[in-house]
Specification:
12 strands; alpha/beta; eight-stranded parallel β-barrel; single chain; 12 helices; globular
Length: 319
Amino acid sequence: MSTRMHRRGFVKAAVLASAAAPFGVQAQPAAASPAPPFSGPLPASVESLPMGKIGSVAFSRLILGGNLISGYAHSRDLPYVAQLSKRYNSEAKVLETLELAETHGINAMNSFVMDGNKELQLHWKRGGKMRWFAQVRLDPEGGFTQVKKAIDLGACAVHLTGDVADALVKQGDVDKIGKLVETIKSQKVIAGVAGHGLDSIRACVKANLDVDFYQKTLHTHDYHTAPKAGETGDLGRYDNSWCKDPEEVVDFMYGVKKPFIAFKVMAAGAIPPQRAFRYAFENGADFVLAGMFDWQVLEDVKIAREVLGSLKRNRPWYS
């Protein structure tokens, strides 16, 4: 007789076996609950990164971006990516990312103040020393309550977001940006302004605002969804956010004697970090802000160290 079992017979046998299992297997005691992850002290650092100063505070040249952690990934025409990032970056995964970043030499991160930043608070409770650049926007009525919230939550640096700075400059209201900077500095906190468009930085420099740093997008156009001829906006199609004229940014920032943090250097993941970091640092950035998943941290730190150790740079370090 053939010993071959057809699929239907296999399924029937499997069902019968599973039904009988509770009567033939002695119940095992429940395993002890594991200790909560990331509840102990932070591990010792295993490596360091080159540092620079903004004001009197030393920051790693590579700064951890908060968009991937918060789920604000620029996904172009793939609408599921932001939700996927949020689902992947659970509380435990964010804590793991912060731990990896700090123990491998990254001592600062940047995120929006209204995201809550619960994981950063938990990281600090473990003894973490990660410094925080808080992004802020204006209140609906134009107030600065987000500045107070950021400082109350422990930010050591606060900056106006690029979209708000761009909008205020287009409205001709650079004075509002100046008042926000004054409010931040009155609390003895490092103050900055970000811009997607270079016009925002130009206007602030022209007004001689007393900022401690500027943050500007900087990357090449060597990727598929880069600006095309005739696309002149600072925000492009398909949920894109870009540096529309990198050479113009490089030329202008050369003469700006303030620390310069470059962001969107990988064009939201379209440019490999090897090329992105080198381009930003060699073309004047004093710091690079880069979003990273946990599995990218070690590689990005290694790349940053290699790039910073072999630079051909024209702009002086302003930090």
